[in-house]
């Protein structure tokens, strides 16, 4: 094992990934940021240098952070944020995990301004190694022409009722095309770059596909090529073929694509679902007819002579806003979940607070971040989480090696991609309706993942093993929902957490702050 050292230098610049120039945050002068890679068992040592005019905090989406929960990167939960001009080194192990992850700022909605990238843990014992020759990372992102600071100012204004801001364009690996023709006089250029993936006929490619959006659900496909799914969010699965891949925010899949067609160019299609964007009353802040929902890239065979693809899409009609069918996903090594020893549920609703500002609530409580991170309160001050204010949305799980079961009930018409930090979970079941239908529970070989969709007017049940001391976020990954409080804290095995020693770097961060 080695220590994989990286520096992520955050800066602000003007950037035009879809032909429209806006203030963007870059990491190491690129967008998306660098792909962080390690082999299973390595440590990461990642220094985040904040040259932005605002604070930041970095999260490693999907990493367990066992024994290093303070490096999970959530302000108010794991650490104080990184002030402009300062830096913080995150150090964590990869020894339990392999596969496809990502990293992103967890400060406000900041990752949507550009602070994100892929995180890959290679596995020398990957059972699929012989089944592909090369690999690519594909990030799918929605893109706005205003900064999130500007959008949040509108979205959080008292009396605003327009729903989530709607993206202007979508990007494949940071490249997209705004529909300039549909908006005469708008300051955009038509010839922005297209994402091109080169292949050689006869070779096989592993594509690691990550939805890094803030609002959009994506349907992904490559004309003329089937995709063999081999990994779901870090868990190997029994391979199965699909022609279209649905991904809500923060979901990831590895697929193998065989370059076995005529040696020409084919469209790669990433379509943002309008249904998912508009089904919850999202209307205006910036919605206009020029939005390009159909983002394209190119799969280009070596020696191809057709410079623009004439390929046709697959026509399956998959339900938008829903997970890839759980019945297809069978972990390669099934570990059947045990019966829960602690069960809780969250009820998702929307409302407005006393000032008329939109809020999202879990069990009638909208999360309000505190100045002091919960992790520090527990380790430094031995605070009992039961005494914390309701607005902390905190729940204790103290049954060592027990099984937690969480059901999320959602009575509104949006679909919420919920993510649990610090864990993978069994997706026991989900469905539409106000009551759980236990007949659809899979307690034999359910999918294992870290992000799953709670369907509109429906419910989702997950289970996980209580074995990772820390305070873990559990939240909707639609950034607008998270910003208005659709967020809970899981305080896990706090008696063990209290005994852990926080690195001076993390302590020092808060010491600098007035609270
Ligand atoms: Cu992708 Cu709370 O994280
Ligand atoms: Cu949501």
TrEMBL record:
Molecular-function GO terms, alphabetical: copper ion binding; oxidoreductase activity
Pfam family, one: Cu-oxidase
PROSITE patterns: MULTICOPPER_OXIDASE1, MULTICOPPER_OXIDASE2
Organism domain of life: Eukaryota
Family recorded in the similarity comment: Belongs to the multicopper oxidase family.
Keyword list, A-Z: Copper, Metal-binding, Oxidoreductase, Signal
Cell inner membrane as UniProt keyword: no
Plastocyanin-like domain location: 11-125, 135-284, 368-493
SUPFAM superfamilies: Cupredoxins
Protein name, entry field: Extracellular dihydrogeodin oxidase/laccase
Phylogenetic lineage: Eukaryota, Fungi, Fungi incertae sedis, Mucoromycota, Glomeromycotina
Annotated source species: Gigaspora margarita
